[in-house]
């Protein structure tokens, strides 16, 4: 089972490649959705890492996939911009999944 990165910048991609994780750099919503679709149909990929900035391009799709799909696991990776609060995102996903505000 492999990791796969969908990133909005080359710095994150290069850092992940040093750790042995392959990936792509994209910038547009349709590119994100296309790469995510490819990763979801690749049986070797177990975890898809996506930078925060790209998740913000299609949050409704990513949220739905996180809640409904068993594989691959989609994980948000904080990017170099660092302005997004991951804790708030996790709280929102849990609240949507169980129907209770934390």
UniProtKB/TrEMBL annotation:
Keywords: Ion transport, Transport
Keyword match Ion transport: yes
Family in the record: Belongs to the V-ATPase F subunit family.
Native species: Proteiniclasticum aestuarii
GO molecular function terms listed in the Swiss-Prot or TrEMBL record: proton-transporting ATPase activity, rotational mechanism
Name this polypeptide is given: V-type ATP synthase subunit F
């Amino acid at each position: 089972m492999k990791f796969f990165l969908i990133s909005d910048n080359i710095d994150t991609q290069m850092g992940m490649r040093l750790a042995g994780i392959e990936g792509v750099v994209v910038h547009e919503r349709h590119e994100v959705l296309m790469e995510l679709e490819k990763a979801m149909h690749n049986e070797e990929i177990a975890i898809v890492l996506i930078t925060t900035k790209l998740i913000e391009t299609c949050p409704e799709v990513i949220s739905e996939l996180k809640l409904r799909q068993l594989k691959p696991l989609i994980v948000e990776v904080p990017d170099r911009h660092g302005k997004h609060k991951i804790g708030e995102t996790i709280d929102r996903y849990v609240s949507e999944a169980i129907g209770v505000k934390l």
